[in-house]
Structure formats: C-alpha cells, structure tokens
Amino acid sequence: MRRFFILCLALACTTPALGQNIERTDTIEYLRSQPYPVIEGDVTNRPYRVVGQVTKQLRKLSAFSKTPDFQAVQKELWERARKLNADAVVKAQWGESNNPTWTFAATEARGVAIKFLTDAEIAALPKP
Fold it and tell me: For a disulfide at 99, which of 2, 11, 83, 105, Cβ 3.0-4.6 Å?
C-alpha cells in the first residue's frame, strides 16, 4: 500500500493539473519565441508553404569533441533555412553518428523550410 501511495504522489507531482497551461511546441507563437525556430513536429495552427528542404552534415571538430546535440542541429538547419528566407523549419530530424567515438563522426540533419502564409494569402485560399 505504501508503494502505491508513493507512486501516486510521484505521478501527481510530475503530471500537470487539469486546466494548467502547457506550452505547445507546434504553434507559430512558440516558433517565433525561439532563437532557432526549428521543431521536430509540424505547425498546426497556421498554414504555410514549403520553401525547400534543408540538410546539413554535422561533424565533430576532433576525435575528442562531443557529438552534435539538438541545439547544434537547430542552429545549423536554421542558418540554411534563413538563407532561403524561411520563417521556420519543421519536421527536423537527425541521425546517430555513423562512426565510433574515436573518429570524426558525422551526423546527418534535415528538415523542411517553411514560410507562413499572410492573412491575405489565407483569405484567398479556396473554402472547403
């Protein structure tokens, strides 16, 4: 019984309360608040058009450097998307390094560069 109580207490402390405001990462507002507007998912509250695909091969600087993390992936994908005049990058993905730790491992990163539609463009869309 005691274990059950401890488990319930732990779950109550880690799960948000009903009605509590949880920051959503799939909105235009979230993306605009980020230094690198790159997300793994898709934007659900604003139509957009695809500007292009962005890819980058991230390499370690030396055999002793750490493997690139998500923040490094975000920065590199955003730099490429910004050159395409994009507003954000969605569906960002990156793989594991293709070499062992002691080599100059590379990580493939890719995403979809998008441009949000203006209010006028949204109004001109055909109605379903």
Answer: 105
